[in-house]
Amino acid sequence: MEREEEKTKEGSSYRYWVREATADAAPPPLPQKLSNNDVALNAAPASLGSLWNRAGTWEEKSLTKWATDRLKELLGSVGSLQFSSGKAEIIDVNRCVGDAFLVTVRNKKRVGYTYELSLKVEGEWSCEENMKKVKGSLEIPEFSFGELDDLEVDVKLSEDKELSQQLKQLIRLDMKQFLEPIRLKLGQFEQELKDR
User: Fold this and answer.
1) pTM here?
2) Listed residue (194, 192, 182, 184) closest to 93, CA to CA
3) pLDDT tens string 91-124
4) What is the rounded distance in angstroms from the CA atom of residue 153 to the CA atom of residue 71?
5) CA angle (177 as vertex; 171, 178 as ends), nearest 5
6) Fewer CB within 10 Å, N side or C side of the chain?
7) Sign of the dihedral defined by the CA atoms of residues 13, 19, 22, 27, in that order
8) Contact 135, 158 (CB under 8 A)
9) Cα(112)–Cα(105) distance, rounded to whole angstroms?
């Protein structure tokens, strides 16, 4: 018991902050009214995202509706191509499935998308001095942001028993020439997406 009393008299190992001002302590701060210039100088920098996300942490915004409509519009404007033995044009976008998004991370804007496409194509090719109407589709299985150099097109022709295998092979090779105009339109789409 005596030892405990001695310890409390000596003081404990825990110290409180000084509660009473001493002569060498700094004076307490005084409140100051800010002027309009002070407020303007201390205003937070503009952030990219929503008002609630002033820190610019993580914010994701869906651009799928705009992107789907814009892809259909751009790919519908590819037009027709003339080949050595025929011509063809993209009639319609049969399928345009995917998503596009805008992400704000650490106050930096990043965009991305992933889509699958099917384009309806019609054309005419000369076969033994006759012009044969051909229908088919260009399938782009999957493409995403920044991967347009790796773009591939699969050509599917409608079943036509009058066409020889050799002519079908020629038509498939000709239709693959749509790849470059499609790639250019998708490049334009990527640039518009970045600028949003």
Assistant:
1) 0.71
2) 182
3) 999 999 999 999 988 888 899 999 999 999 999 9
4) 16
5) 105
6) N
7) positive
8) yes
9) 13
